[in-house]
From TrEMBL:
Subunit structure: Oligomeric complex that consists of at least the alpha, beta, beta', gamma, delta, epsilon and zeta subunits.
Limits of the Coatomer alpha subunit C-terminal domain: 782-1188
Protein name, as recorded: Coatomer subunit alpha
InterPro entries named among the record's database cross-references: Beta-prop_COPA/B_2nd, Coatomer_alpha_WD-assoc_reg, Coatomer_asu, Coatomer_asu_C, Coatomer_complex_subunit, Haem_d1_sf, TPR_COPA_B, WD40/YVTN_repeat-like_dom_sf
GO CC annotations, alphabetized: COPI vesicle coat; Golgi membrane
Acidic residues bias spans: 798-807, 832-852
Region (Disordered) location: 792-812, 832-867
Keyword Nucleus: no
Amino acid sequence: MLTKFETKSNRVKGLTFHPKRPWILASLHSGVIQLWDYRMGTLIDRFDEHEGPVRGVHFHNSQPLFVSGGDDYKIKVWNHKTHRCLFTLLGHLDYIRTVQFHHENPWIVSASDDQTIRIWNWQSRTCISVLTGHNHYVMCASFHPKEDLVVSASLDQTVRVWDIGSLKKKTVSPADDLMRFTQMNSDLFGDDRQVKLWRTNETKAWEVDTLRGHMNNVSSVMFHAKQDIIVSNSEDKSIRVWDATKRTGIQTFRREHDRFWILAVHPEINLLAAGHDNGMIVFKLERERPAFALSGNSLFYTKDRFLRYYDCSTQKDSQVIPIRRPGTPSLNQSPRTLSYSPTENAVLICSDLDGGSYELYIIPKESVGRSDVVQDAKRGTGGSAVFIARNRFAVLEKSTSQVLVKNLKNEVVKKSSLPIPTDAIFYAGTGNLLCRSEDKVVIFDLQQRLVLGELQTPFVRYVVWSNDMESVALLSKHTIIIASKKLVLQCTLHETIRVKSGAWDDNGVFIYTTLNHIKYCLPNGDSGIIRTLDVPIYITKVSGNTIFCLDRDGKNRAITINATEYIFKLALLRKKYDHAMGMIKNSQLCGQAMIAYLQQKGFPEVALHFVEDERVRFNLALESGNISVAVASATEINEKEQWYRLGVEALRQGNAGIVEFAYQKTNNYERLSFLYLITGKLDKLSKLMKIAEVKNNVMGQFHNALYLGDVKERVKILENAGHLPLAYITASVHGLKDVAERLATELGENVPSLPEGKTPSLLMPPSPVMCGGDWPLLRVMKGIFEGGLESAARGGAVDEEEEEDAGGDWGDALDMVDVDGMENRDIDAILEEAERGEDENDEEGGWEELEGLDLPPELDTPKASANARSSVFVTPTQGMPVSHIWSQKSSLAAEQAAAGSFDTAMRLLNRQLGIKNFAPLKSMFIDLLNGSHSYLRAFTSSPVVPLSIERGWSESSSPNVRGPPALVYDFSQQEEKLKSGYKATTSGKLTEALRLFLSILHTIPLVVVESRSEVDEVKELVSIAKEYVVGLKMELKRRQKKDDPVRQQELAAYFTHCNLQLPHLRLALLNAMTVCYKAKNLATAYNFAKRLLETNPLESHARAARQIVQAAERNMTDTTELNYDFRNPFVICGSTYVPIYRGQKDVSCPYCTARFVPSQEGNICGVCDLAVIGADASGLVCSPSQVR
């Protein structure tokens, strides 16, 4: 049994499948009816108008209706679209057991404990017939699927067949039961625990057979819709499957605690459902996926106990050989996987027979098309079997997690243990296996017995390799993981609906199917729907626009798809813009989703090409900086918000003409005043002041007077506003004596006093650096798409000179539409209109309808850039930033970091040295970037000028050739650090010494030297620093282990085996000798004392060593045993600080070469704290001489 969906609920008494949609209705003992989507696993709706248990429920086969009957004696007809009960049929006098719609007529049949069967017309909502004759509860009644019959079963131990043909004649009530099966204790399914099979003709019925096996009352029984089997379930907590021809039990499925009450069979597809005490299950009896294997254009697959061959190029299908004797009694024995060796023409077929077995067939060359050649296959048991080479295949022994490699004679050639507990193996290239466990997969090389890659995954069902074997898709129930051939994760995709199959197309896009869609997955993880499916299919091959697939009946189908969408997205992803351009021009790419995708991926100018809606066009034009399109769209929309946003964008681009126009359209006087001020258009500013006066906008008038420095106007405004003291002060301070005297007489005694000893000055705004016109725009290259799209829109290619000319800005190719009222209007006209408007009491004052004005020439319709083509100023072409040149020319991590390409630097360090932890390097990256750039101030109003500092620059060098960046770290600094580290070690400042040596290890990846000899010195320095870091870390750890004398001695002993300078080695030996002597380990102390004497130590140290030698010679014993054997050469693990003796396996850090025990593989190195232990790396690159 393959459980597809399971629910937990109250006892399920009734079930019905929807004939088309993936829905199932479950009626519960609690009175609730649940509508579930078994494909998505979600509860769609619940209906709870019945009181008490609902025992019967049924979907109509074409209308959006279902019927239910319950213990409240009511039959209810519901519309599941409107989520409500349409009407209730009343008439039964006791519990209703079953209800069913007729397949053609508008009838419902119901069976009840009132001993009657009723037939209802649901259109007229009346009971059209009552069938009486049973003398006990009627447990079920149902229409015959083709003929005018009803069959019913009752606790009176009879099954009755009723003729209802007369109902169609609409005359008389139906005849009494046509025939009665009155044998005692024998109904179709019954409390006698038997299932009986009957045959009927026109007049009589007879029992054919009895199926025995259930241990309790049989609650439901069904013929399977597709196969020749009978399914029954019972209160004995089991579902049994019977062979309808042989009348024997095939299989039994049991539950621990739940009695079964009801069965339902899907009318169209291979699904069943069973309701029990605590919910229901939707299940299949057998897998429907055909086993297949593809090689080039040849597809081998199994169908109906034959191996078949399909040629994708000619689309010819033929039978090859019969593959197994029929007659296995149990389900799910069909082939599960198929593996094919094209050179030997051999096929391996695996199935679940006998707990997992395989059969090996060699296909005779001439047998394709002749299916009568029966051959005896070579068989064997094993979890799964796959070809791994031309004439070798691997068989998995699950129990021992071993793989047996066999030849075509089925003889074991080699045995190999697998690195993880494996429950299935898949092909992964010649000689390699992909091993699957519950939560991960590994690729295992059978020759070298090495793990080539490992990946944590959900439970993988299918593995699909790309044509070049560079990528692999791992398919789980709801997840697709795409990884490289070494199992490096590239992307993960989650689906809510089950994933069924997949294949790679020629472009490296993974095409896959779920239960109801064909979808695609791009290399970056973007996915989308290609088309919807009516029935599930299994993709075998994707070739161009054709998908070859097998359906559940084992038929080959070729589906043509529209690949435009994903090919276009792939072209954008791979930066093949010319290809994308061609597709835009020639194909019908459209839709909101595509526009949203282009916007999200940073191609608004491309999205602009697809859009008709003006608002969307406006937004996209602003996003891509295309002012001309934005102006045209804003004019079409003509709303305040759009003009405001257009003004903001035009201001950002320095396009003063359009800014002015946008402010005029929105009557935004304050912004307009400020714009005229900063662009130096004082004549327009003075006209704006008059407009403010006409409109009685005192504050606006005063602001404009301030901007203009017009004192008389300010005094006049203050006087008119009634602020006479302020007007007097303004006039006095600015020397307008006659006005001041006139105001003084008006003020009388209230004349304000002026401050003494101050020299007043006129407040004047600064003159703008550049007056009028637009700001100089850089000659920017058109976006890769824009020029092409616009030329396409104009209906032809643009010749090169014209293209060159159009490069002046981003929008000129699309000339702006001339719309009435789009000119920047002369302020005089506005002034006149405002005056007129004042008389007419206009609402706003009339910036809107101005036509036929005599305009000064420079104020014509604003173009997107007024002076892009002017002869006055041509801006130079922008060069490439120096940092770009540096990052293009160099493959040294330090130079990439100095250029600001941190991601490239990190990738280089990862590839060269296996570095993964970049936290210690962050500050150095920033120092390198800051150290290679300086900044010069020009004018106060202009931005600072960045300056790139080059290494080895001289005045004689060519200005056009860029040298490499200056670096703040060099090798001599590291040598100084080394000396300081030695000094700190000698004086016993071990923490400071450790910091210095670690700093050397962290800085060396970012050091650049010139010659090959210096490269060797750098590598030697890494080795020295590594030895000291390991030794000092052990010594510091030893000093913390006060309570563990054995570990103290071991760490002191290991320290003496680090490759140290002689003075430091003496200190380490003296230290180890003292620690061991104090712990009464005289034999070990003797060894250290002898080694110390060989180094010519200080006299005091030598005397102590000689005394220990004499003491040890009298008693050469150790009181405690140490994990230390000085006779056997060893290296020390940099993380666990245990010895790794010669001959033992170890792994090393790809950067600092520290050694570790194998269990540390994959962790960050404990010595340098940068690289991953055991990672693949090409080696340190620190000089241009290594690259050339």
